[in-house]
Amino acid sequence: MTEDHPAGSYDAKSIQVLEGLEAVRRRPGMYVGGTDVKALHHLVYEVVDNSIDEALAGACTRIEVIIHPDRSVTVRDNGRGIPVDIHPQMKKSALEVVMTVLHAGGKFGGGGYKVSGGLHGVGVSAVNALSEWCEVEVLRDGRKYFQRYERGYPKAPVADVGKAPSKETGSRTTFKFDPEIFKGEMDFNFNTLMQRFREMAFVTRGVTLYFKDERTDHEITFYFEGGITSFVRYLNRNREVLHPVVHAEKESDGITIDAAIQFTDAYNESVYAFANTINTVDGGTHLTGLRAAITRTINDFARRSGLLKDADPNFTGDDTREGLTAIISIKHPDPQFESQTKVKLMNPEVQTMAQQVIGEAFSSFMEENPAAGKAIVQKCLTSARARDAARKARDLVIRKSALESLTLPGKLADCSERDPEKTELYIVEGNSAGGSAKQGRDRHFQAILPLRGKILNTERARLDKILANNEVKALISALGTGIGDGFDLSGLRYGRVIIMTDADVDGSHIRTLLLTFFFRYMQELIEEGHVYIAQPPLYRLAYRNQVRYAYNDAEKDRVLKEIGANADKVNLQRYKGLGEMNPEQLWETTMNPSTRTLLVVSVEDAAETDRTFDMLMGSEVLPRRRFIQTHAKEVKNLDI
């Protein structure tokens, strides 16, 4: 602090102005959502979105994404190429303006794009600012142009580096994320990116999207001529469908509504919304329009067909969404998103238009296919009856206190702390492990709920049957949030919900059953980061006066090397279950906040997670058998 600006003063000198891209580096959360691994992947999406915009403009048919061994990423397309001529206002190459100036781009009404996902003009410039280095190559007008940047700043003006290959156009961007911003052992995940690119290819009909990871030589190519109709078929490939996919598409006033609908025998809703190819995970006006159209159309058909009598109430949205798989993808010249990360669409006119377009197409389908229409209505009737039974069961669960509703031999051992920010609930497999956990825990903030056996597979049951299950009732009562449409996160009694099961096949199955339940009926619990998986050790290694724990085979081998003793002189114990640990060992390895390891459960791609749970836990056996046969050789530990 200088003498002329003492601590506590507040005057003109206190006002700091962040020039250019420095604002992005100082506050990355405002532009890419943070500095975690999710934000790291968002960098790739921002660059690919620009290539997708070229495809939406009809100027690009192929996009390539390559992760290099040094963790740099290349995105290449065969679009028109970023303009390189001198910008009249900025007096420098348009390429440099796009890469280094916030809110600069061809998507603000200048005629470059009819529709676009990136409308804030901060995407690629933010990526550049958050990269250790970035290089852009442009093929345009028969010439090749190049510019390199380091932490957002150009090293030299845009250079003409020679002739372009015959008639080729497009842009190639290569960037290496900045370890000063994205700290730690962060890296790109092939599966996370692959799922996002699959979605992009589904909603951008006719574009080829090639993805290669040079670190592992994994590669995959996506191309879907059927667009979102293919997407719905993909999601439902393990389900029994009630009718063919209903497709609705119409353009008006520059806005395109594209929707695909299909009902199945499932008990859950699988509906996803996109705006200018961007997955709006929080929905918005387009999703509201879709749901309203489906509910109104089914009610109208049911009344006209006499399937709903005059005395019968209309179906609610909950009734008409059971077993529904639907995609709505809109293209809008001026989409209004809730934030830069574009998770919710706000345009009010889209709701009316979506409701009209989808309502007309779905109504025509039901009139022309009365057998399919009747099957859909029957599904809704069954859902309505089950919903009423579930409401009564849910009210019964809510009315009872947590301890009153627990009928398990090992009841909930609550903690004394009442602040959810400080409390934890361990969901433990079996009474034996539950006993050790109760004795080993810190009673001040850790609660224990032992489960007897395996809970109900909630993928194959309606809510009324689920609520009749004692294990599920105990879980709902202990958490205090309610369930389904009555779920309220503000009632959560424990800030961390930790699944602690044995490291064997049965333990993995119980963990999957619990995750299925949370994903289907308490998804917000996962989305808000409240669900964790405990990591108990596999091995205890004792040598002389040393005791070490290892959580996998590689760590066991490393510990043996560190000890420096012959393996036969080490007392090696492999834990087959939590019950084999005494309370002190369980606390030291798995429950002590200062020494334990917890894995937080997150949902990177809801559509792919939906399909995976359906495949693993649904009623169709063949897809599950194929999955097991495909991945059998990857199993590391299998207790027989």
Structural descriptors:
640 residues, alpha+beta, Heat Shock Protein 90, Ribosomal Protein S5, domain 2, nine-stranded mixed β-sheet, five-stranded mixed β-sheet
pLDDT < 50 stretches: 14-18, 107-111, 400-410
At the fold tier of CATH, the topology name of the largest domain is: Heat Shock Protein 90
The helix count comes to 21
So what's the CATH class of the largest domain? Answer: Alpha Beta
Could you state the CATH homologous superfamily of the largest domain? Histidine kinase-like ATPase, C-terminal domain
What's the CATH architecture of the largest domain?
2-Layer Sandwich
What structural category arises from helix and sheet content? alpha+beta
Mean pLDDT: 84
First-to-last CA distance:
67 Å
> Got a strand count?
22
Alpha-carbon Rg, integer: 28 Å
Q: Roughly what percent helix?
A: 25-40%
Outline type:
globular
Which strand-content bin applies to the residues?
A: 15-25%
Profile the largest sheet: 9 strands, mixed
Give the arrangement of secondary structure elements:
Layout (H helix, E strand, L loop, with lengths): L21 H5 L2 H4 L4 H20 L5 E6 L5 E5 L16 H7 L22 H7 L1 E10 L2 E8 L2 E2 L4 E5 L6 E8 L12 H14 L4 E6 L4 E5 L5 H8 L10 E7 L2 E9 L6 E6 L2 E2 L5 H20 L12 H5 L2 E8 L16 H21 L1 H30 L2 H4 L18 E6 L1 H10 L5 E6 L11 H4 L3 H10 L16 E5 L4 H17 L1 H5 L3 E4 L4 E5 L2 E5 L2 H11 L7 E4 L8 H9 L6 E3 L5 H12 L4 H10 L9
Parallel strand pairs: 1-8, 12-14, 15-16, 15-17, 17-18
Antiparallel strand pairs: 1-2, 2-7, 3-4, 3-7, 4-5, 4-6, 8-9, 10-11, 11-14, 12-13, 18-22, 19-20, 19-21
Helix pairs in contact: 3-5, 3-6, 8-10, 8-11, 10-11, 13-19
